[in-house]
Predict the 3D structure of the following.
Amino acid sequence: MGFYPCSAHGLMFKGAAEAVYPALVEGGNSERAHLRLCHDCFVAFLARAEELLVEVIAGAKGGAGDQRRCYRCDAGDTRAAVFVTAYPKGEEGRQFFAGVCDGHMDAARAAWLGADAAVE
Ligand SMILES: [Zn+2]
Ligand SMILES: [Zn+2]
C-alpha cells in the first residue's frame, strides 16, 4: 500500500484511501479524475453528491428529463454532465450524475474534479 496525500485537503493521512472517480462529459469529450480521499473528506464529498446530484439506482426506471438540469442553476439546456462514482469502503460503488450548463462548467470542474473537491 502506498502513501498518498488526500486529494481534497492535500496532506498525507493514515488509513486506506477511499476513491472517487468524477468525470465531466461534454459530447464526445470527457475530463476525468481519480481522487484519493481520506475518510473525512470522502464523507464530505459523498454528502455533497447526495445533496446536489442525482443518484443512479440500478434497476430504477429513470425519466432522464429533470435529471439533465444544471445542478447549480436549474437551467434545462445543459450540454455537459458531471458523473461521479464513489467507492465507500466495503461497499458497492455509488453513482451520481447531473447536468451542467455552459456557465457552470468551470465551477463544476473545480467542485467535482479539482483540488477544491470536498472543500467547497
Ligand atoms: Zn482529506
Ligand atoms: Zn448552471
In short: The mean pLDDT is 86. Residues 7 and 45 are 11 Å apart (CA to CA). The chain has two helices and six strands.
